[in-house]
Design goal:
The complex is a heterodimer of chains A (about 110) and B (about 120). By secondary structure, chain A is an all-beta fold. Chain A has strands at about 5, 10-15, 20-25, 30-35, 45-50, 55-60, 60-65, 70-75, 85-90, 100, 105-110. Chain B is about 0% helix and about 50% strand. Chain B is built from no helices and eleven strands. Chain B has strands spanning about 5, 10-15, 20-25, 30-40, 40-50, 55, 65, 75-80, 85-95, 105, 110-115. In chain B, the strands form two sheets. In chain B, strands 2, 4, 5, 6, 9, 10 and 11 form a seven-stranded mixed sheet that branches. Chain B is globular and about 40 Å long. The termini of chain B are far apart. The chains are: A mainly beta (about 110), B mainly beta (about 120).
Chain lengths: ~110, ~120
């Protein structure tokens, strides 16, 4: 069974600080995705990484896919209150169009 | 603009009652999914459909059913609501891509269901 574990579960930081969120598995994934979910809304896709070692940047957010394609990280530089939300990683299950989701990291950035 | 909507947004019901949650998408996507979200569990897949007349069970399907009579709608029915089904329910849709590829799931705003 493929599982995705995220750490930390909760993170509360001050505006301007940097942070890294991790998504780990013992299984190999063909790709991994990161979603952000704000209160009262559904998750929204931020990025998909598809190649081992790949790094993608989205403004102050940097996403990396592990070389072995078993893990991914999300680094936020100079966090802002607008970054507050639940961050979810997701990966496709082998041979299907279904995705499994990690348990999420709930981030709160204090002004 | 294409969108995915869910109704109702909030629902309170009693144990044993049948409840149906609606999901409607205008993306014209083949794939549709129902998830439940609970603290500490992330999103767990209840049922999914790859097209009209196709339905499949996910990891937490007991007590739930779906039907797909057209491309746009995938209603989720709780046959006999239980307190353990109190949760936030999300519907999502995605375009089918080649096997081994990836796609974007578009989520609805969610339905908060409370079973008393």
């Amino acid at each position: 069974t493929q599982l995705l574990e995220q750490s930390p579960q909760f993170l509360s930081i001050q505006e301007g600080e940097n942070l890294t969120v991790y998504c780990n598995s013992s299984s190999v994934f063909s790709s991994l995705q990161w979603y952000r979910q704000e209160p009262g809304e559904g998750p929204v896709l931020l990025v998909t990484v598809v190649t081992g070692g790949e790094v993608k940047k989205l403004k102050r957010l940097t996403f990396q896919f592990g070389d072995a394609r078993k893990d991914s990280s999300l680094h936020i530089t100079a966090a802002q209150p607008g970054d507050t939300g639940l961050y979810l990683c997701a990966g496709p299950t082998s041979g299907t169009y279904k995705y499994i989701f990690g348990t999420g990291t709930r981030l709160k950035v204090l002004a | 603009d294409a969108e995915i909507t869910q109704s109702p947004r909030h629902k309170i019901t009693e144990t044993g009652r049948q409840v149906t949650l609606a999901c409607h998408q205008t993306w014209n996507h083949n794939n549709m999914f129902w998830y439940r979200q609970d603290l500490g569990h992330g999103l767990r897949l209840i049922h999914y459909s790859y097209g009209v007349q196709d339905t499949n069970k996910g990891e937490v399907s007991d007590g739930y059913s779906v039907s797909r009579s057209n491309t746009e709608d995938l209603p989720l029915t709780l046959e006999s609501a239980a307190s353990s089904q109190t949760s936030v329910y999300f519907c999502a849709s995605s375009e089918r891509v080649l096997a081994g590829g990836w796609d974007t799931q578009y989520f609805g705003p969610g339905t908060r269901l409370t079973v008393l």
